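WARN no homologs supplied; continuing
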Amino acid sequence: MTPELRPYSLVCDAVALLFQPYAEVVLHDLATETVVHFAGNFSKREIGEPSLLSEIGFRQGDAIIGPYEKVNWDGRSIKAISAVLRDTAGRAIGVLCINADVSDFHAALRTLNALVRVPVDADKPESLFREDWHERVNEYVQQWTAARGLTISTLSRTDKQELVIALSSNGAFGGKNAASYISRILGMGRATVYKYLSKDSAP
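OK structure emitted
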């Protein structure tokens, strides 16, 4: 290993240890174009093997290569990035490659997507939602706040008054106990809701 590259061995060890068991770090010596150090080895490569940097499109003028995707020997997905190391004169002397095993994360994403996905052709059961004014109130409140760049937790007193009036204008108070439900989701007393409604109806 070129003497200038020796300090980078500790960098390789530190990165691999921090992200263990998901990171492998490989140090290449451009003087010999061989692998000179490994940390967290899961690719089953060996010290002294040819670097084969042409496979990642290495050029002498590069600084950072990637991120790019690879496939490990066991079929696991790898996200990789390479940094070109230079001496004090700016001459490229090595390449430090970080390989991250992202297979477990892909599996987790697939699981989450399966849990939250609703089939495109899946209609709401009419028998359940025909009279579900809770659903209609929820959708209206979400649309009203989103259109104004607000959330329920950030509504001011004036915002809440405007929203109550808007809900009333759209028939939201026709459901049984609707006032109680709306007061709860807006975080205010039912009496306040009625006060806003009475102000709106006053001549």
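The CA atoms of residues 10 and 101 lie 21 Å apart.
OK
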